[in-house]
Amino acid sequence: MKMRLKKQVIDILKILQEKNEQIIASELAEELDIDYIVLMSAINELIDNSLGYFEEKEIFQVSLTEEGLKYLKNGLPERQLITILEQDEIKEIDLQDFLEKSTLEKSLFYIGIANLKKNRWIAQSKASGENKVFIIAEEFPKTDLEVFIEKFRAHPNLNVEGLSTQELEQVDILNKRKLINKTQKTQRIIYLTEKGKKIDVNQIKELEQVSKITSEMLTSDAWKKAELKPFDVSKPGPLLKAGKIHPIINLINEIREVFLSMGFTEIRGPIVESAFFNFDALFQPQDHPARELQDTFYLNNPKEAKLPEKKLITAVKNTHENGGDSGSIGWRYNWEEKVAKQTVLRTHTTATTIRRLAQYYYENGKKPIKVFSVDRVFRNERVDKSHLAEFTQIEGIVIDDNVNLCDLIGLLSEFYQKLGFSKIVTRPGFFPYTEPSMEVSVYYDKLGEWLEMGGSGIFRPEVTYPFGIKEPTRVLAWGQGLERIAMLYYNRNDIRDFYVNPIKWLRHQSYLK
Ligand code: PHE
Q1: What is the predicted pLDDT for the residue at 502?
Q2: Binding-site residues, ligand 1, Cβ < 6 A
Q3: Residues with Cβ within 8 Å of residue 16, at least 6 apart in sequence
Q4: What angle do CA 137, 138, 142 make, to 5 degrees?
Q5: For the whole model, what pTM was predicted?
Q6: Residue 296, Cβ neighbours under 10 Å: how many?
Q7: What is the pLDDT of residues 138-171, one digit of tens each?
Q8: Within 13 Å and on the Cβ side, how many CA atoms surround 490?
Q9: Given ligand 1 and candidates 296, 347, 371, 395, which is best to mutate, with the most ligand atoms within 8 Å of its CB?
C-alpha cells in the first residue's frame, strides 16, 4: 500500500531532504512560519512512518542584555567617544572637557576611555599638569568585539556551540562587561532515517485528515465527509509551565490531613521565642550545652522576651532548683530569670507545644487535648546535603488522664502508617524533657531499610507539674523533621533542593497532589 501523509508533513519531509545539515526544531518552525506544536506533530508522523526521529540536546545560548542592545544600536561607549573626536578632528583634549562634550554618563565615559586605551587608540598623560587624552592611532577599524556584536542583529540568541574560539573570547569579554545573558535550554534536533532520506516524496499520497472541526465545516456539512485524525494521547505534548503548589507545601498539607483525621487540632507559636519556653519550661538546665551559641540563634533585637505570670516562673524556678512539687530533686543550681528572658529563634516546635501546656493551666477544664504543629525551626548548623539551618518540624501532643507508653506507640504506629510507613520500631532514647523517651524508626519498603525518624516520649513531671498538669494527667509527645520525610517522598538526596528550588525538578512535579 502506498504511504499516505498529510500535505504539510510531505512538505516538511521535502525540506528535510533538501537540507543536509542538522535541523533545530524551533528554528525550522520559525523558518517555515508554523507553530512549533504543528511542526512537532508533523515530525511525530514522520516518526510513526519510520522516516525521521529527533533527539533532545541541552544547548547554551547567549543574548545581549538591555545595555548590550543599546550598544548594538548606538555603538559601544568607546566607539561613541572616538566618533566625537573624529568628527571634530580633535587630536588631544582635556579629560574633563571630553567628559562634558561626550554627554555620556560618567561611569560609561570611563569605561569608554579604558577600552580606547585597550584598543591602543588613545593615550592618557598628566605630564603637562593637565589630565589629557591623545589620539595615537591613524585609523579606528571595527574591533573584533564590534564585529561579533553585529551577529546579534540577525540572531538575538546565539548558540555557544557554533562559535569559534575567537568568538568565544568575545563572549568572555562581553560577559565581563555584563553585556550578555547566558541561558540554557533543551532543543530538539530533527533527523531523517535512511528510509526518510531515500523515499521519493512523489510516491507518497496526500492524506486529507482534519484534526479540528470548524464552524464552517459544521454549517456546510463538510464534517460528514471529513476523515478525522485520531488523537494519540501517548505522544508527548508541550510542557506547560503554570504555577503550582510547592512539593513541601503539598507534603505539609498531607501531614495536616493525617493529624486532623486523628482528631488533632493545629496550633502555632512564635518563631522568636523566649529561652523560657524553648528550654527552661522543658527542664533543660541553664548550663545545658544545647543552649550554647553553636546550636541556638540568640537575638539582640528584641533582647528580652516577656515571660508568663510570676506563679509559673516561680514554679519552673523551683523545679530546676529543687524539684518543686514534682517529686524530683531538681538540677540543684541557682535558676536565673535573666537567662530565661533571652530571646532565641525557636530550635524546636516543642517550645510551641509547651506553650499549649501553659495554657492548659489556665483553662483547666480537664478535657483531653490533642494538638499538633507543623512549623519552622532554626539551628545554627552548617548547611550541607543533609542539614539545614532553617527547617520544618512536625510535632504532636496528647494530654489526658492515665495515658501511657502503649498509647504513645499506638499513636505513632497510626501516624506513620497514615504517612505510608507500614511498620515502626521504637528504641529507648533520651530527651531532657521526656521520661521515658523513645527514638522512632520506620520501615521504608522502597529501600527495604529501617530509617530513624524522630523522637517521642512522655513529658517528665518536672515539665508538666509547674503548669498544673499532675498525675494521673500525662502528656504524650512526638516530633520530627519534615524535610527527612520529604526526601523520601520526592526521592531527593540533597535536602537543600527543597529550598534552592531546582526549576527543572519543580516543573516536573504534578499539578495535583
Ligand atoms: N523536640 C525534639 C527534637 O527537636 C523532638 C521531640 C518532641 C522529642 C517531643 C520528644 C518529644 O528533636
Answers
A1: 87
A2: 348, 350, 395, 431, 434, 454-457, 477-479
A3: 23, 46, 52, 190, 192, 196
A4: 80
A5: 0.62
A6: 20
A7: 899 999 999 999 999 998 989 888 899 999 999 9
A8: 26
A9: 395
